[in-house]
Amino acid sequence: MTMATSVPKESFRLSMLLYDTRFRSYTIQIVVLILFLAALGWLVNNTVQNLAAKDRTFDFGFLFNRAGYDINPHLINYTNDDTHGRALLVGLLNTLSVAIFGCIFATILGVAAGVLRLSSNWIVARLMTVYVEITRNVPVLLWIIVTYVALAETTSPPSAFKITPDMVKEGIAPEASMHLWSSVAITNREISIPAPLVRHSLGSIDFGLFSLSLDFLAFVALLVASIAVSRWLGRRATRIQEETGRRPLTWPLRAAVLILPVVALLTAQGFHLERPSMWKTDTNGDYILVDGTGQELVDANGLALPDAEGQRITSGFNFRGGIPLTHAFTALLVGLVFYTGAYIAEIVRAGILAVSRGQSEAAYALGLAPQRTMNLVVLPQALRVIVPPLISQYLNLTKNTSLAAAVSFMDLKGTLGGITMNQTGKELECMLLMMGIYLVLSLIISAVMNVYNKAVMLKER
Amino acid sequence: MANQAMPNPSFVRQEMLPPLDPPSSQTGAVKWLRENLFSTWVNAGLTVLALAAIYVVLSHFVPWVLHGVWDASSLGECREKVAASFGPDAVGACFAAIKDRWHQWVFGFYPPELYWRPTLALALVLAALAPVLFTSVPRQMLWLTFVTPFLSVWLLWGGSIWGPVFTMVAFGILGAFVMMFSDRLGGITTSIVAILLVLALFLNPVGIVISIGNAVLSLFGLIPWTPLGFLEPLGNAAGWIFPLVKNMAALFHKIAPIGIQEVASDRFGGFLLSITIGMTAIACSLPMGILLALGRRSDMFLVKTLSVGFIEFVRGVPLITMLFTATLLLQYFLPPGTNFDVILRVIIMVTVFSAAYIAEVIRGGLAALPRGQYEAADALGLNYWQAQRHIIMPQALKISIPGIVSSFIGLFKDTTLVALVGLLDPLQGITKIVRADITWKGLYWEPYLFVGFIFFIFCFGMSRYSMYLERKLKREHR
Fold first, then answer.
1. What is the pLDDT, as a whole number, of residue B212?
2. What is the pLDDT at residue A76?
3. Which of A269, A379, A434, B204 could form a cystine bridge with A198, CB 3.0-4.6 A?
4. Phi-psi category of A175—alpha, beta or left, where left has phi over 0 and alpha has psi -120 to 50?
């Protein structure tokens, strides 16, 4: 007969805290906790002492004081009479606009470069390799600064674009001219691009903080509705196909639904692009012309003569109209897109190479066309490999927008961590707030992209 | 019958014909062009576009470089020389500026008569790196690897020799202790003794205990009560002995004042600054990254939470904010009156920043190891550190080499950001100085081309080395 030997009851000894693996981890953790709290206490204590020694307080009240400096560009209403808090918001929106446009353009450039690097075309593949290698091995700051120097220091001043009556008389052409059929002007101050405008505006709603254009809202609403109808048509076609085995022809109708309402709206509102220009105009907004002798063709009231033939002349010192883009913004965007695009190209290339050849061969064997093979077989598998590193590239780009400091772009670092900090002397508050905002931004981006990643991830059972 | 010998009919050829040449479209350059450049209409279009792009770039770039002037004393002279040699409309680079300011780009404002010191330091570092990077170099040279960091710091900043000597001795004692006693004493005891040693060698343990105790007991200055105030004299007295390294160095300097001219940190600039920051941060961020990665994978909740919090915080903020923290906020976080070297502060921040990224790379390597490796190490009776040292890390690091090296490349490129906190890095600091100089005003592309080229060489070299290392360490499919 066997009897279970009872385990001898162990008495607890102090040395077990160190030598018994059951207790040791607790010992270590308690020691770590004490050390951590001590270090934290030391830091807080030093900070308190230092603040007291400098006769400063720790509060964020300065955010409600008058900022007193201008910010260009500002996406929401802002004047220098607004508060530091609002300046912070303007800076944050500038950061976000660079980050969002940067991510979009970098993805386009990166995907194109990555796919082309795998192309069977020898010269294009080599060219893309050169692009990727050169870009990745040089600091991003260099691309930003070089773009900035190219835009701000090697372009002509607005005065070089001028056409005066004297120049017309003597037949001298201006030193500089606009690009893309006279729609884009690059001066040493800024780049002016055409602005989309409507003649019959619906007005806008003023929210105080910002005003929302109803035209834009109507456009977006119509577009969303059109897309919804178009998708419904597609689903209906699929349903009919499942019932009858025959898919009705829908694409002309879908294209019409997508395009016609939007075009109708834009036409009804009188949509046009306002080009930046330096042309001299009268009070009616008509262009003033000069004849071959440099004489202005105007009537006694200074109004432009209708139906006169002559050459337009300019007035003023800078381009008016259109959307002015500051060089800092453009340089930051171009530098970041160029640099991040190279990294995304490598990610896309690795993702496509990770899908084994057998997959596409199997798809061909099943009779799928190359386009459908790409869409249904290769891309869904490649995306699983591509998305996680792509997220970290988006994060990097967002964090790299802080390099705006090198070209004096007024982003979060330029407003909160720059002028506001220097004016108020609240280094501690400003830096902590700024770090907190960047941290939250990063966490939001990774959270959103992780949700997407979950959606495309391999569904394992 | 089938196998009966047939008479040879006259219409059957007796010998083989010589093979014909392949059609001209299926051979040589034509075939290659067809397959690689003009296989489809899209491809042909792309080829034409690519050729046009290459032509546009080269037609501007090549004459500009070929017409480049290397000997001139100002931009105006450069332009005159180009105009004289290649006609009035010719464009030409003015590389003379780079030749003229070469020393500034390399050394910043380091005293010219002492240029040999950074040069010697760089030579030492390269020699010290050789046994680490290439296994074919004799192992005895590892001694140089141990000595070089301290020697280089002394050469770069100058001052008394005793500081670096005693720091080296202290690290030697620490390293020797861990290597010799860790197996005998076990992980816990070794760590405790090592921490005590660090405290005694580099800090003042008595003073620290007193000040932290005071801080905690007075609820961080909320109540004016310093119960340990009576111990202050003890802390001050301990200051005569601790930190051991500092006091020993001071003592020996009094006895035998051996030293070389000191060079202040604000004289550093150019590639000297980039390489100093880059090399130090690279060397320090790897061990720190390994520890963080191990912490993140630890079973202990608290250790894991702290590591995760630290890594995610550092990865969530831009490097610039951390550099500004180093220059602006450390005066708040450190005891009043503390002020240490700005380059050292920047190095610490860059190291911490890079370590968080490296930790994530190594964590990937650790996660890629099959569970069996950990279990096998346990089965062999190895303790945690032995298992890490002999089984886990060699494999995990090998897997993570590409990621680690690309982190290093990123770190080296990020050294250009120090310009934003006022240091004279080659890309912004020195280039701005040169371009603002009246003799070289109007210079646009040459400085950036030059700085970009140097960075390219370093970074491309690192990535090629990582490929070489991967090939060398490959154990499968040989």
1. 74
2. 84
3. A269
4. alpha
Give start and end residues of each alpha helix (H) in B67-161: 75-86, 96-100, 102-107, 116-133, 142-157
Helix (H, G, I), strand (E, B) or coil at A290: strand
Given a cut of 90, whether residue B450 has pLDDT beyond it is yes
DSSP annotation of B112 reads G
Q: How many residues does chain A have?
A: 461
Q: Is the pLDDT of residue A217 over 70?
A: yes
Cβ neighbours of B236 (radius 10 Å): 13
pLDDT value for A400: 93
- Please give the DSSP secondary-structure letter assigned to residue A186: E
By C-alpha distance, which of B211, B218, B124, B213 is closest to B164? Answer: B124
For residue A73, say if its preceding peptide bond is cis, omega within 30 degrees of 0: yes
Q: Is A46's CB within 8 Å of B333's CB?
A: yes
Considering only the C-alpha atoms of chain A, give the largest distance between any 2 of them, rounded to a whole number of Å.
130
Q: How far from A19 is each of A12, A14, B180, B186, CA to CA, in Å?
A: 12, 9, 21, 10
Residue A213 host element (H or E): strand A211-213
Q: Min CA distance, B15 vs chain A (Å)?
A: 42
Can you tell me the distance from the alpha carbon of B465 to that of B282, in angstroms, rounded to the nearest whole number? 15
CB-count exposure of residue A34 (10 Å: 0-12, 13-18, 19+):
exposed
* CA pair distance A133, A131, nearest whole angstrom: 6
User: Inter-chain contact B37–A123, Cβ cutoff 8 Å?
Assistant: yes
* Residue pLDDT, tens place only, A171-215: 777 888 787 777 888 888 888 888 888 888 777 887 777 778 888
The pTM of the whole model exceeds 0.95: no
Neighbour count for residue B119 (Cβ, 10 Å): 14
Q: What is the mean pLDDT of residues A123-134?
A: 93
Please name which of A147, A135, A102, A146 lies closest in space to residue B413, comparing C-alpha atoms: A135
Question: What amino acid occupies position A170?
Answer: E
Separation of alpha carbons A402 and A101, rounded Å: 15
Mean pLDDT of chain B: 86
Helix (H) or strand (E) holding B59: helix B41-66
In order of their start, the domains of chain B are 39-100 (no CATH), 264-478 (1.10.3720.10)
Phi and psi (nearest 5°) for A83?
-85, 165
Which residue type does B259 have?
G
Asked if B345 contacts B325 with a C-beta cutoff of 8 angstroms, the reply is no
Question: Alpha-carbon distance A348 to A362, whole Å?
Answer: 22
Contacts of B409 in chain A (CB under 8 A): 136-137
Tell me what pLDDT residue B314 has.
93
Residues of B in contact with A149 (CB under 8 A): 444, 448
In order, the DSSP letters of A325-391 are EEHHHHHHHHHHHHHHHHHHHHHHHHHHHHS-HHHHHHHHHTT--HHHIIIIIIHHHHHHHHHHHHH
Q: What domains appear along chain A, each with residue ranges and CATH number?
A: 61-140+327-461 (1.10.3720.10), 279-313 (no CATH)
> What ipTM is given for this predicted complex?
0.86
Within a 10 A sphere around the Cβ of B448, how many other Cβ atoms?
Answer: 20
Phi, psi (rounded to 5 degrees) for A310: 180, -160
Please give, rounded to a whole number of angstroms, the shortest distance from the CA of A345 to a CA of chain B: 16
Q: A307-324 pLDDT, tens per residue?
A: 777 777 777 777 877 888
Using a CB-CB distance cutoff of 8 angstroms, which residues of chain B are in contact with residue A52?
A: 221
A336 to chain B, closest Cα gap in Å: 14
The pLDDT, as a whole number, for residue A454 is 80
Residues A130-176 have pLDDT tens digits of 999 999 999 999 999 999 999 988 888 888 887 887 787 787 778 88
Burial of B77 (0-12, 13-18, 19+ CB in 10 A): middle
pLDDT value of position B478: 46
